[in-house]
Amino acid sequence: MGVLLCLGAATLLAIPAALLFTRNRARLPLAIAGMFLLTAIPPLGIIGWGSPFLSAGVLFPGTAWLGLIGVLASVALVGRFPLLTPALTAILALLANSLYKPPPLPAGWQAINTEFGGAGQADPDFLAEFNAHEQMQETISRSNALVLLFPEHVVTQWTEATDAFWSKALQNLAERHATILIGVGLPRLRGPHFADSSRYYNALLARNQDSQTIYYQRIPVPLAMWKPLTGDGVPLNLFGPGTLQVQNQRASVLICYEQLLVWPFLASAVEHPTVLITAANDYWAKGTTIPKIQNVSASSLARLFRLPVLSAVNE
Asked: Is residue 50 left, alpha or beta, with left meaning phi > 0 and alpha meaning psi from -120 to 50?
C-alpha cells in the first residue's frame, strides 16, 4: 500500500511536466516555472512535498518573496542557460548568506519535547494518557516561561471535562500572565449531540488568562488523517487562518505534515508573522529521517522570511 501511494503521488505530481513539456528552448523557462508552481499550490500542493521552493531559505535567507522568485528563476532558466544560471545563483546565495543574521526567539518562549509515544492515540491507553496529562501539568507548574509550547495531539480530546481536569494548571498560567500552546484533538459533532474519536479537528490550542484561540490544521496527512468522501478523520481546511496572536507576537503555525509543504507557510506569510511555531507528533516515525526532514523544511522557510522558530515534538 505504501509503494502504491508513493507511485500515485509521484504520478500526479508529474502531470504538469507532461502537460507543459516542450522542445522549444525559448518556451522552456516558462514551462519549467509553470510546472513547479502547479505542484506547489493546491490542489497538487496538498501532496507537493519536497518542492524546490523549500530550498529558498537555504539559498537566499532573509529575502522573503524575492528569494522565492530567485529559486523559481533558477530552476526555470537552468535549462536555457545551463552554465550562467548556476554561477549567478551561487554568487547571489553566498551574498545573501553572508548578510543573514538569525533572529532570536522572543524572551520567555519555551518548547517542551515529550516522549509519550502513542499514549492516547489509535488504541487509547487511559492510564498512559492520564500520566501524560499529569506530567504536562507538572511541567507548567515548574516553568517560568511566558509562552510554553507542547507538541501536536498530546491531548487527544480536549473537552469540558479536560478543561476541568486542567483547571489548576490553567489557573497557574493566569496568575503569571502566561500562555500555553498545546496540540489537541477537538471533537467534531456527528449530529447535534454525538461525537466520536474517528472525527476530530487537529488543532493547536492557545490559552491564557483572558482568552482562548485555536489554530485548526489546514492540510492533514491525506488518507491517514484527511479521508475524502468518508466524513471521518480531520477535515481539510485549505484556506483557514495561518497565524495566532500570542502575547505580542503574530505566530505562524505549521502542524506536522504542513512542514513538508509550500502552500501552508506561504498562505501564512501574507499575514505578516513574526515567529514560526511548529508542532509534530512523530512517535510513529521514531528512528526514521521524517522528523529531520520536517525540521529542515520548516527551518528553511523560516530563514527565508527571517523568523525565529519554536518547535516541539513528541516521540
From this structure: left
